[in-house]
Amino acid sequence: MCGIIGIVGLADVAPLLYDGLTVLQHRGQDAAGIATLDGSRLRLHKGGGLVRDVFRQEHMLKLRGRVGIGHCRYPTAGSDNDPGEAQPFYVNSPYGIAFAHNGNLVNTEALRKEMFESDRRHINTESDSEVLLNVLAHELQIQERMALTPDHIFKAVAAMHARARGGYACIALVLGYGLLAFRDPNGIRPLVLGERITAEGREYAVASESVALDVLGFKRLRDVAPGEAVFITDGGQLHTRQCAESAVHAPCIFEYVYLARPDSMIENVSVYKARLRMGQRLAEKILRERPDHGIEAVIPIPDTARTAASALAEALGVPFREGFVKNRYVGRTFIMPGQGDRVKSVRRKLNPVELEFRKKNVLLVDDSIVRGTTSKQIIQMARDAGARNVYFASAAPPVRYPNVYGIDMPSATELVAAGKTETEVQQILGADWLIYQDLKDLVWAVQDGNESLKHFDSSCFNGEYITGLDRHYLEQIEMLRSDDAKAARRSA
Fold this sequence. Notes:
By secondary structure, the chain is of the alpha+beta class. Helix content is about 35%, strand content about 25%. The chain is built from 17 helices and 21 strands. It has helices spanning about 15-25, 50-55, 55-60, 110-115, 130-140, 150-165, 210-215, 255-260, 270-290, 305-315, 340-350, 375-385, 420-430, 440-445, 460, 475-480, 485-490, and strands spanning about 5-10, 30-40, 40-50, 65-75, 90, 95-105, 165-175, 180-185, 190-200, 200-205, 220-225, 230-235, 240, 265, 270, 295-300, 325, 350, 360-365, 390-395, 435. A hairpin with a 4-residue loop joins strand 12 (about 230-235) and strand 13 (about 240). Helix 1 crosses helix 7, helix 4 (about 110-115) crosses helix 5 (about 130-140) and helix 9 runs antiparallel to helix 14. It starts with a strand and ends with a helix. Residues about 335-340 have low confidence and may be disordered.
C-alpha cells in the first residue's frame, strides 16, 4: 500500500510533491522519493525513512522542474526494508523513465524470466515494481522511437496490461514527453485525477488518495478508470484512453477498512461515511446476538477504528470514550518486520487511561484483526487497567487469507483467524467475547456510497482472488512473507 503522486504544474513542483507525500505518509513509512523533469535532465532524490527525514533543504533546491512524481513506500512481497529499493526507479532506455508503483504483481517471476530471456533487460532488485517498469520500457521501445505520440504511449500501456497480472496503480515520467499514469484493469488499487486552475493556466495531479489533492488545492475530477491511462504532456495537454479490455471492476475493500485516510474519497465513496456505516451495522449485529450486552463504554483502538466505534456507540446508546493515548511516532504494527518488534511496539504505541477502564465492562473496537498480536496485548492492557470485562469488536470480517495485491499481510499460517472459528480466536485473544463484522455488511457499508460498485476485492476475507493465481503463488509468498523467512534473509 504505497503512496504515489504526480504533478504537471506551471512552476517547480517539488514542494507540492513533498507536501502531498506527507499527507500520504500513512500508506508507506519505509522509504520516500521524488523525481522531476528539468528540461532534458531527470532530478531524483530518494532514501529510507519518513518523508521529513529523507528530504532536506539542499535536496529540495536541486529538484527543479514543472513535472514530477513522488512515492512513499512500505515493502510488499519479496522485498524487505532495503533503502536500495526506494522509488522512483529509473531506466535510461528508451528516453529515460522514472517510475513509481503502488500494488503487487502476481506473475512477477514469469515476467522476470521474460525480461531476461526475451526482452534482454536486467532486473537489479527483488521488487516487482522494477519488473513492471522494465515491461513498460520494453513496450515503449518497440514503438516509433523517433516520433513518440500519445497513441504510441497508450499502445505500450495496453501491451503492458496484457502481460502483467495483479493490482497496481503507477505513475511515470518520460523524459522529453511528460507524465503517464495508469491503473490495473480490475481497479484494485486506487488512483484519482485532479486539476487546479490558476491565473497562469491549468495544472494536473494524480494521486493514490483524494486527500493529497485537497491539501494542495487541486479539485478532484474523478477516479482514473480501471485499465485507463492518463498522459499529460510537459506542456500541460491532457490525453486519456482505455487501454485494457473490460474486466470485473473490483476495488480493494480493505482501503475503506484500514488503508485510506477517512477524509479521502475513493470510487466516489467517502471513506469516513463508509466507516460510520460499518459501525452502525456492527452495532445491529451486537443487538441481535447479545441484546443484554452490558457494555458500559465503547473504546476505539486509535486511530483507524475511531470512526466506526463512534457510530457503534451511538447506535448502542452507550458512552464513547477515548481509553488509549497513542504515541504517534511509532509506525503501523502489523507491518513491523518481526513478531518481537510488534510485541514491543504495541506497548510503546498505546497507553491506557485507567479511569475509563476501572470496574467497567468495555467494548474495544478495532478496524480489523490480522495476526492478533496487537489485539491480545491491548485486551490484557485493558484488564491491567482495571476493566471488569473486556469485549472486542472488529469492524472487518475475519482475515483468513493473504492479501496479494499490495498489502504485506503475513503468510496464512500467521493470520490468527486462518483455519479457526471465531470462538477459537476469542480464546486466543483472551476476550470475554468477540464479534466480527459480516462480509455482506462490510460490502453494504461501502456500496451504499456508490451503488454502481458491484464487486470488491475481498480476497483477504473470502480467499477469492479476482485476477486468479498461479498454482504455486501462495506457497511462494508464504516463503517470502513469514517472519521466519524475513529473519533468515536479514541474517544472511
